[in-house]
Amino acid sequence: MIDATEKSTGKAAVSTPAGAEHPRTHPPASYVLMTAAHNEEADIERTIQSIVAQTVRPERWLIASDNSTDRTDEIIQKYANQYSFIRFHRVDRQEGRDFASKVLALRAGQHLLDGATYDFIGNFDADLSVAPTYFEDLMRQFEQNPRLGLTGGFVYEKQNGEFASRKVNQVYSVSHAAQLVRRECYEAIGGYAVLKYGGEDWHAQTSARMKGWEVYATPELPIYHYRPTGGATNFVRSSFRLGKLDYSFGTYPSFQLIKCASRLHKKPFLLGAIIRMAGFLDSYIRREPFLLSPELVAHLRQEQQERMRALFGRSGGTASASHSSGSKSDLP
Asked: Which of 1, 52, 243, 298 could in theory staple to 280 by disulfide, Cβ–Cβ 3.0 to 4.6 A?
């Protein structure tokens, strides 16, 4: 299920993990995966092989080709013919970049998950690979912590020719790239949200925390990302969009200033932070409406206040609250 509010799954949606501490009485845990792929012929085969090699394969895996014009469809179909758990769905849409298209593509193919039995639902991007025990290890963490609602590993990208952990990785922020969500948690948050500027990963984990679930990433579980986001050709556009995304979530201007200042040292020096702040100010001056519910905006701002107090040493609290706005960055 992509949108847990659209169709009943036969389970009651819960807003807190109450009762989750009861011991498991049904068969071993199972999961389903979703992948949206747009022109991923260079990496999709390696991605599929990574899932096929898992010690515990998904009960079902929806791969939605989002208007691909290269060999992506052909490669997916080849593996779907070989493995019954892989379900291929083609999505045609108008040309152009739409940051909501990923979730919309998955929703378009959600019927292919009907009838599957699963305890967890997850996203897996089309340009990744993980160790064969990755999803078995994630499910073990859920077993060990009944309050855990959403988890994943740390993203690794090539730096000077070798894979290394991204500097923005944080234990309290789970990348959407390769994550699992407990089914009860997924239903409680209403599934992955369709957002104008993207950020469905941040929305999911913040909503989960607001509902009373724990969210964290595990550094010891690497996710190898082969096509880093924000290349030179779209850097300006991407940075500007992230600023507008930050605003659309209801981010405090003071928090945004601090976050952008924390990025001044990152290449290209000054430019990324300035453009991101410009995107935020563009939405602020236009008084664009926030894209989240008032309840979620209030929760976000409370987390941001806690983060700022912790950062400046005015509180004994921790900085474990939130990946506060935007899916690819955070305060230090």
From this structure: 243
